[in-house]
Amino acid sequence: MIFLLLAQLAMLSAQPAMGQRVRRPSATPKDTVSIIPPQDTLISTVPKGDIETTIKYSARDSIQFEVDRKVVHLYGDAKINYGTMDLTAAYIQINYDLNTLTATTLADSTGKEVGTPVFKDGEESYAAKRIAYNYKTKKGRISEVVTQQGEGYIHSEVVKKNEQNEIFGLHNKYTTCNLEHPHFYISAGKIKAIPNDKIMSGPFNLVIADIPTPLGFLFGLFPTPRNKRSSGVIVPTFGESRARGFYLSNGGYYLALNDYIGTRITGDIYSLGGYKISVDNTYVNRYSYRGNLNISYDYFKNDEADVADPSRSTTNLQGLPPSQRTAFVTWSHSPVQKPGRGRLTANVRAGSSQHNRVNFESPNQYLAPTFNSTITYQKNIQNTPFSYTATLSQGQNNGGRLSDGSPVPTIMNFVLPDLNFAMTQMSIYEIFSKNVPTGKWYENFTIGYNVRARNEVSNSVAARRLSNIPTLNESRGDTFALNLDNLDRLWRNGRKSADHNFQIGLGNYKVLRFFNLTPSVNYRESWFDNKLTYTFNPDSQAVQVDTAKFGRVYEYSAGASLNTTVYGTVLFRKGKKVEAIRHVMRPSIGYQYRPDFGDQDRFGFYQTTQTGIDTLTNQQIFQTLPRFSGNVPAAGMSSGLSMRIDNQVQMKVRSRSDSAATATEKVSLIDNLGVSTFYNFALDSLQLSPINLNMNTRLLKLFDINVNSTFDPYQLSPDGTRRINRYMLEGDGFKLARLTNANLSVRANFNPEARASNTPPPTNLPGMLNPNDQFLPDYVDFNIPWTLSVDYTIFYTGATSPLNPSSLTQNIGVQGTVNFTEKWKFGYMAGYDFSNKNISNASLDIYRDLHCWEMSIGWRPFGLMRGYNVTINARSALLRDLRLTRNRSGMNFR
After folding, report:
1. 297/165 same-domain check
2. Cα three-residue angle 190-195-198, rounded to 5 degrees
3. pLDDT higher than threshold 90 for residue 554
4. 237 and 193 in one domain?
5. What is the average pLDDT across 367-391?
6. Is the peptide bond before 407 cis (omega within 30 degrees of 0)?
7. To which H or E segment does residue 458 belong?
8. Residue span of the structural domain in which 197 resides
9. Of 429, 506, 671, 765, which is most buried by a Cβ count within 10 Å?
10. Which stretch is the leader sequence (predicted)?
11. CA nearest 691: which of 723, 736, 639, 624?
């Protein structure tokens, strides 16, 4: 249709427009008009009809009209543009008598063919030596053409095109390589291409580097959809597993249900028995939400473990469980935040405990002790300070084995629901008065509130016992199955609670011009569905525990803090590289008071009861026990001072990057150096808490240093088993405190580009993953020539007793990448444990860019996933199954 419009326009444009330059050279026939200004361009418009937009055409050499033959010639860089269509060639001819359009190359002065015709219409592109098209019948013939269809290219000797825009090719090469002479291609005698839909071929075989291979089939089908999804077959991958034998994996069908939902149905089948079925649904609603729901069912068959000892359910050599059926559900949902609307988010991972053990894809997944699920709805009520959140959560263990080989019981914990209602902190004056604030001191008071109610249920029945105390009807912990028959038991086994928190602000005040005084008050109250009462039974010499239906605890505290900022600056003479050093010190001191909530007569949160009789002295034994199973306030009064000093040191130096004499820059010597402790006046001994010291800084824009340490100001007893009420200063020598634990971390990033952005080096090179997954990384950046980072850590723990002496552990790690050439990239990682004197982990990754192919090599010499992987595959996602993989890691090899 487009070529028909071009021909019609050419007919309308045959007569020169007013003011148009016309030249009649003597070399042309007298019935021919030739227009040959340099880079002549004609723009023509016509009244509304078949042509609805402006058509532009130009030629570098000349544009000629043969009126008697009704032919238009465009010579030299001929171009035609109409809407989204572009046609370029060395020569273009429009014959509106025969209704044809022809585009060809021309020979230059050396005889070389130049100006290959290129046709583009939207996303479609054609390149050919000769194009002949009848715009009336809408049929055409193209010789030596290269057609782009989706991600692929079709090289054809001859192509015919019908009125439905379908392409029929003879002697074809189909490839995803964009070179004129492709590295590989699928050779087929006949091909039919339906644009934006699919490519079909007869018998074909694969050709690599012009060498035919026997790989092929009786027919081929390659989907090439653009701007839309389409349903189709998913080709499985094959391999071999040490536990399951030979297999076909991830084969199935993809259903493009509509523009918003796509479903992927795949399955695995294994030669040693067993299978796996997975249904994966992805949904997207632009500007509203997106999510994914995956349901997987797996039959794992392990005859070795079944025969070994089925009664104990022991595992085989690989640590795998016996034959079993497992299921797993994952669901993720994330909305787009919109003002005034609620937000529903979900992250669900639930199913059989052993599922991840037999289908793990990484060491972290295999070793993870639990997996959890949450579904949350949150909403802020517009034009109010109120908001609420409702959450459903679930957690369960990830399987495993006990020391006797029996499976770990599956424990499921639920919170159904977790409700939170909150009011943001507001001024009390704003709440209770509508007058204009006057600046009074009490107008700075603020109050905030939130309440959290939870209903926690579990299939784990807690043991009816007290620590080291005999109780009546003592029992062991147990679990029960989750099914419809046990729903009532599950509900009765739950625990309900509600926590109320009040945030009270008393303002901030200036004291003596330079100090900031901030008083504070805190109050918390909790409600529980049980309250315990203990009674000693002398007949059974055990404690009887009675449970009430409701209990209430509360706690409150008050305090005030005083802080200021002190600046100190040292100036140097002009002309020096260092102009000044500034020290910023932020000391703060605070007082905190909290009553003794262990006072039984006043609060009743604890109960002192007889728990037994000493058989040697025949005296009664009493213990103080909490009366609630939830968050009970700690016993003991707190009345003391908290002290902290933070320091920062900066240096002002002349800038190297700026030639101006006055240009300077700041260099941080110490980002933060903090010391803190607490002194409790309410204690009768050991009133001073351990002293915490921490420091972090960045030196030379290269080294990141972090130090955390704890010092004890008190001495140890002569036997070294306990602290005594005697300061270290009172001992021999001058010792302020003794170091109890410390850790030092030093990280150096030597890559200049990464140091400039303060980001760690990329770690996206190939890894030893599940062999069913795509090994190749999503992206490898060859523009970064190299990266190198070094991590060094030290952990020190002081002696706590003669049986627990001090210990020191040191680790060093190195990781990075390097480009040996423009196409070769190496990634490496290694760690060394100085304490155990061994290599803790190591890996080597190699990536090779082969233009339309890529190769990755990964080697892990240690750990659960030790082994190697070599993968060579086509880069195009369209031919992702065209790959060769050799893998030996963990359970699998192929």
Report:
1. no
2. 60
3. yes
4. no
5. 85
6. no
7. strand 446-458
8. 2-221
9. 765
10. 1-19
11. 736
